[in-house]
């Protein structure tokens, strides 16, 4: 059974870490930037003042607003506009993930006070912990770290060499 699951887990882990690398590269700086904006400071205070169930209902806002991005992207692709389609899909999904992540970070403790949410989140964490404990997952994670460090090193060298060129 283990041999049967290993390729599946390997592919799943590879896809997850590629998506995660893209998400981390784009979404975390965007999320930090949004969190430091004065307008969002007031909104953050209001969100933190909400009780648990209204906090949970707030998750519907980014989903309802940004979920129609998928059919729009599909329509663009079907009409031959592949690059705009991909751009709309990626930007919409990143925005949705950033907003949902920020909402969860702001409301985690309140959300976990809702029994059904806590139960579902506990099951999610168990599944994720099991997946992350698998050998294939850990191997792809190591490769992901090596790739990320390689890209960072190359970017650092590129920045250094461009600064030296500008100084001349």
Task: Spell out the blueprint of helices and strands.
Elements: H1 2-36, H2 38-49, H3 52-57, H4 60-66, H5 69-78, H6 82-112, H7 115-133, H8 135-167
Helix pairs in contact: 1-6, 1-8, 5-6
Describe the protein in words.
With 168 residues, the protein is mostly helical. The protein is 91% helix and 0% strand. It has eight helices and no strands. The chain has helices spanning 2-36, 38-49, 52-57, 60-66, 69-78, 82-112, 115-133, 135-167. Helix 1 packs across helix 6 (82-112), helix 1 (2-36) packs across helix 8 and helix 5 packs antiparallel against helix 6 (82-112). The longest helix has 35 residues, at 2-36.
Summary of the model, kept short:
This protein has 168 residues and is mainly α. It has 8 helices and no strands. Helix 1 (2-36) crosses helix 8 and helix 5 (69-78) runs antiparallel to helix 6 (82-112).
Give the number of DSSP strands. Answer: 0
- So what's the oligomer here? single chain
Helix content: over 70%
- Count of alpha/pi helices: 8
Largest sheet: none
Give Rg in angstroms.
Answer: 20 Å
Decide which structural class fits the backbone: mainly alpha
Shape: globular
Runs in which pLDDT lies below 50 for 5 or more consecutive residues are none
Q: Round the mean pLDDT to the nearest integer and report it.
A: 84
SSE pattern? HHHHHHHH
Distance between the termini: 62 Å
* % residues in beta strands: under 5%
